[in-house]
Design a protein that fits this description.
The chain has 336 residues and is mainly α. Helices cover 70% and strands 1% of the residues. The protein contains eleven helices and two strands, in the order H-H-H-H-H-H-E-H-H-H-H-E-H. A two-stranded antiparallel sheet has the order 1-2. It starts with 8 loop residues before the first helix and ends with a helix.
Length: 336
């Protein structure tokens, strides 16, 4: 182990003024480290969604009846609050783990050489989405699990997953200008797929808001809609997404597209089929909690899969790869 350098007073002041710049001057992470940091933030953004679903499915949404404290007199859960309080407070603690993962991603991106401003911006975008969703989560508790705020809470988490997915992808490519790998018609088809997926996820929150899993054992307001009708609409939208995905795969094969878009489309198709099986089984078995939790996980994986298909339609080389080589005159002059 190398000797730890002594920090002067000037170093301490510099670290206090701008800790990220201070770290960047003394640490250069390997590209794989930056990729792993971005991936950890993405994984945690999915974990927080699934554990949040577990809070709702166990009826622990008001296990901590207030926010930001767990009770009016205690920051943490108490023994009197039982299992529901422990589950709700545990999910709140996971927010700090998510913050740590996002912080690591920001620090690694800031310290990477050469410095890539696009990566740090994506990291900070995640940070502010986490902060905004934490506040919104508190509002959800304060308004007694109002279904509209619960839906907004999930949609903001979906936005966080989107930004984390883009950052993870950007760590594995350069900052050169994007080069399309497919034609405009295929790109338009993928954007239709993205739009349909967004509508599918949004309607899924309405299914949740009008369904039986209110998130607490007490009487909780539900969206004034027929749950079965909304569920059938959700199923129709799911089939539209599946059809668009299959059509995309067929078109990519027909135009002899590169391996990347084909692989991502095939992976998405598999996720959609598994998600569809879970969705139909949970519908006909009266929404058992375990299957609903798996369906929420599948929703996150589907969204990541859709974004990976979109991002696979282009490549971004390193900027240095686009720099012109020495001119013929310069080479001749050097050889002379």
């Amino acid at each position: 182990m190398g000797r730890v350098p002594n920090l002067s007073r000037a170093d301490a002041q510099a670290a206090a003024r701008n800790p990220l710049a201070f770290v960047a001057e003394r640490w250069t992470p390997a590209p794989r480290t930056v990729q792993r940091a971005a991936l950890s933030a993405l994984v945690m953004s999915v974990v927080i969604v699934v554990t949040g679903g577990a809070v709702r499915l166990t009826g622990s949404g008001l296990g901590c009846p207030t926010w930001p404290k767990c009770t009016a007199d205690s920051l943490t859960t108490t023994s009197a609050m039982g299992l529901h309080g422990a589950i709700e407070f545990g999910n709140r603690l996971l927010t700090y783990v998510l913050c740590a993962a996002v912080g690591w991603a920001i620090a690694a991106a800031r310290a990477a050489k050469p410095f890539r401003r696009s990566l740090t911006r994506l990291g900070w975008a995640q940070f502010w989405l986490v902060m905004g969703n934490a506040v919104l989560g508190g509002i959800v508790v304060l308004v007694g699990l109002n279904p509209y705020t619960v839906a907004a809470h999930f949609l903001l988490s979906t936005a966080l997953i989107a930004v984390a997915t883009v950052m993870w992808q950007r760590t594995r490519e350069g900052d050169g200008a994007p080069r399309p790998l497919v034609g405009p018609a295929v790109q338009q088809l993928v954007w239709f797929l993205v739009a349909a997926s967004v509508v599918l996820i949004a309607v899924g929150t309405v299914v949740t808001g009008s369904g039986p899993h209110a998130g607490d054992s007490s009487e909780v307001e539900r969206m004034p809609l027929d749950w079965e009708t909304v569920s059938k609409l959700h199923a129709v939208l799911a089939w539209i997404v599946v059809t668009l995905t299959f059509a995309l795969w067929f078109v990519l094969k027909a135009v002899d597209a590169p391996k990347g878009p084909l692989d991502r489309t095939r992976e998405l198709f598999v996720v959609l089929l598994l998600q569809g099986v879970i969705g139909y089984v949970q519908y006909f078995t009266k929404l058992p909690e375990v299957l609903v939790a798996l369906h929420m996980l599948g929703s996150c994986l589907m969204w990541i899969g859709v974004l990976r298909v979109l991002l696979a339609l282009r490549e971004r080389p390193d900027v240095t790869a686009d720099l012109p080589g020495p001119s013929a005159e310069l080479k001749a002059g050097t050889s002379a």
